[in-house]
Design goal:
The chain is an alpha/beta fold. 36% of the residues are buried. Strands 1, 2, 3, 4, 5, 6, 7, 8 and 9 form a nine-stranded mixed sheet that branches. The radius of gyration is 21 Å and the shape is globular. The protein folds into two domains: 204 residues, Spore Coat Polysaccharide Biosynthesis Protein SpsA, Chain A, CATH 3.90.550.10; 102 residues, no CATH class.
Amino acid sequence: MEPLISVIVPVYQVEAYLGRCVESLLAQTYRNLEIILVDDGSLDGCPKICDAYAEKDDRVRVIHQENAGLSGARNAGIDAARGEYLAFADSDDYVAEDFIRTLYDLLQETGSAISQCRFAYVQGEKLRSEESRDYQIYRGACLLEQLYGPEEEATCFVVAWNKLYRRELFEKIRYPLGRIHEDEATTYRLFHKGGKLVFTRRALYGYFTDNSGSITSVFSRKRLQWLTAHEERIAFFKEHGYEKLLPKAYRKLCDACITFYLRCTKETQEWEALRKELKAGLKKYRRQGRRWIRMLPLKTRLGYVLFGISPGLYEKLLKRMEG
């Protein structure tokens, strides 16, 4: 018999979409699954929906807990999981019927610790991916370097939910409680421990986007937790000998300070204080990472200097260049 695979689904206030997610998991061509629905204190109809699925199919297990956030829900699922392999799905997303089968077969074929697929932005339509056996393998520093690729490619590597993991990777690793950007703070540790990832470019995971009421979110102080995650990542790289990645790591950190600064408009609470903090943050990272920032293109380094002198002038020149 094939090994048990645990699929962990954090659930919170998604009663309109939860059924679609669970149905896509129950329809998997890989049958030896346990689907762990972690009701993270939902106040809508999600708890009843979870229990109804558990009564309908004995592969579904339900955990009801007080709200602990996405990290807390994932961690509860990891602690309860009985499978040899773990996967995650967000409760408003859904997957292709061969999502688990494809990722499991890739692990067996290549001896990798993690397998990964592409994701597609969806609005409810059926996932359609081209049949292909092509895959790519990444190891060691090359694997960690993928976190600094083009934006969508880097997102594909950093997120938790388009992957299948060997269970032992989580023996001492959990998602940080009470923080957002929890993937940014965790995935690189799993890559380091696993050492080898296989990537199929088939889009087997559907990331749901609802454009019916698209609203641009206002920047908030919580977003600075992204900087914290990347500070921790840099410290980890230094400790474990990934110095070749530090120029890109410091560049991403410095660029984020500028991007966040420009997103702090008058609609942002504490916007003036946040801007001052981010400007100081860029200065701090330039000082701490001087050795590696010297390796960046001259244009990039001059941009940091200009921003430090006059963020307003930097923004004007940036708009002119983009226009």
